[in-house]
Amino acid sequence: MILALQTSEPLIRWRYIRDQWDGKILDAVIDHIQLTVISVVLGVILSAIMTAFALRYRWSTGPIMVFSAFVYTIPSVALFGLLVPYTGLSKTPAVIALTGYTFLILVSAFIAGFRSVPGAVLDAADGMGLSPRRRVLTVELPLALPYIFTGIRAATVTTVGLVTVAAIIGQGGLGDLILDGLRRTYWTPMIVGAVLSVALALLLDLGLWLVGRALTPWTRRGHAE
Amino acid sequence: MATAPEPDPNEKSRPAIRLSAVTKRFAGASHAAVDALSLDVARGTIVALIGPSGCGKTTTLRMINRLIEPTSGRIEIEGADVAASGVVQLRRGIGYVIQQVGLFPHRTIAQNIATVPRALGWERARLAARIDELVELVGLDPSMLDRYPDELSGGQQQRVGVARALAADPPVLLMDEPFGAVDPIVRARLQDELLGLQSRVQKAIVIVTHDIDEAIKIADRVALLNMGGILEQYAPPDELLRAPASEFVERFVGNDRSSKRLTLARVADLPFERGAVLEVGASLEEARAVMDAHRTDWVGLTSNGVFEGWVDASGIDDGADLAALPRSRPAAQVMPDSTLREAMEIIMTSSTSVAVIDDDGRFGGVVTLERIRAALAVGVPERVA
Fold first, then answer.
1. Continuous segment of H or E residues that includes residue B102
2. Residues A128, B116: C-beta atoms closer than 8 Å
3. Tell me, what DSSP letter sits at residue A139?
4. At residue B4, does pLDDT exceed 50?
5. What is the CATH classification number for the domain harbouring A182?
6. Between chains, do A121 and B104 touch, taking CB under 8 Å as contact?
């Protein structure tokens, strides 16, 4: 791809934004949100399963972490390309790849969260006769929430950025606008795509932060002495 | 309460907790952590498990609620084998308090206290009434119920821990170094509170401690364990101090055994002694007679049963009126519920070698070092719970 720098082209043509807002731009935003949400939700579910496995069977922690890290190291462009022959040009390869990229962040955060629960709290929970299921749901999970939410926020922000790359296999999103701008040396769509992607990342991050805050009221109280 | 089909003839004498030849051998360990330990804990009594680290005291405690499963032997609670019931069910019927308290940080104090009753499915009204009762019992400020554990001091958290353990009114309470993490002043207060609490709830309490003074202070019986969970002596505190069963026990309780025994008895346990003290209207002859009898050169004066102060012999020799002589207020004063050790310290730091017992503002007699030593010689009376 060759980028010819055209100094005559202004950075923003407001007319483009006005004309394309209801069509191209909004579609791209919706696609972008869709890809992000689906991938992160799938990532959370699969990471939760892997975390449960890692915590239940200690030997599996190492392999699970290696696997998550390995997936993370594959260049995204290559991974999208590699998956297309198997899945065709649909949303599937994008979702598979994007989901895979969340594993490292989410699994480490989830494991750290559960490991952060003080041993004395677990001892007390067992000693009082909480069943293992009740212990996980009413004690360990809530106490791991601060870590869990930090992980989900990081994964979401990362995914919003990565979705722009998914445009190269033609799956829409704000990456389309960026690619379009690059191809045509037309700055406006590129800037619109980039700015909206950043805004979307910040917005989702803020939303998740607020949800996490609402779910962990005890972390905001003062300490005695 | 459920109706028992057939009243057990041994119901009365049966211990609350019975350990029979309980052994725990951890995988890969060459020695048993606890070796054939047999121990009865009577109802309504506090038993302290104490010994050097590695003596298996915590292991023993944790075998009672099956946080650790014994390798062999049998543990009964109220006659029922603990191995026979489900572990979750069993633990809900046993109070459990640990050193780090282990309150749930994400639950309010009320929710923490409600843990076991909730798991048992208590109704809301019953639970609320019980929480009110417990808050009063352990001396918590009800305004704390809506706070989170991190907002409470260490001492307050420990009180919540005790309330939480007692929530479903279990007959047995297990405490693993419950006061180990608080400062000495708070610890002493919590110990006193536990004794006060016990006089009301009458549980069978097993408490693990590494502090012999704590064991002596709060336990009805002390089980002193040696390495590998070997029971060296199981006796009331005074017996442990007066008649150590082995050299190990003697070394463990320390060479200040006698002064430790002094913490077991209170001033009120001593026979009443009036000492060289007179009512203010007494004659000079009476004063001289009292001074002679007690070999002092001063007398104390009371007015309508309230202690007024000491009067020096030099004034009496001058033939002045007893009531008109200058009185120095006593520096040394003890309460009926002061321990003999406290009384001894007060006497030794005072200039008069005698302490006046202040019984709620009234003169309650005197305590002297002689008196305390005499009490030690005959054995300290058993403390009545």
1. none
2. yes
3. I
4. no
5. 1.10.3720.10
6. yes
**For residue A52, is it within any domain?**
yes
Instruction: Assess: ipTM above 0.85.
Output: no
Specify the pTM. Answer: 0.76
Q: Is B183 on the interface with A (CB under 8 A)?
A: no
Fold of B267-378: CBS-domain (3.10.580)
Any chain A CB within 8 A of the CB of B141?
Answer: no
- Indicate the residue of A127, A129, A218 with minimum beta-carbon distance to B148: A218
Query: Residues A67-107: pLDDT tens digits?
Result: 999 988 888 777 777 777 776 667 777 888 889 999 999 99
- Taking one residue from A and the other from B, the number of pairs with CB-CB distance under 8 angstroms is 83
Burial of B140 (0-12, 13-18, 19+ CB in 10 A): buried
Residue A128 within a domain: yes
Q: Using the predicted structure, report yes or no on whether residue B265 has a pLDDT greater than 90.
A: no
CATH domain B17-261 topology: Rossmann fold (3.40.50)
**pLDDT-above-90 percentage for chain A:** 50
HSE (side-chain half, CA atoms, 13 Å) at A171? 26
Q: Which residue of A has its CA nearest to B161?
A: A124
- Residue B262 has a CB neighbour count (10 Å cut-off) of 21
Provide the 10 A C-beta neighbour count for residue A186.
16
* B164 close contact with A: CB closer than 8 A: yes
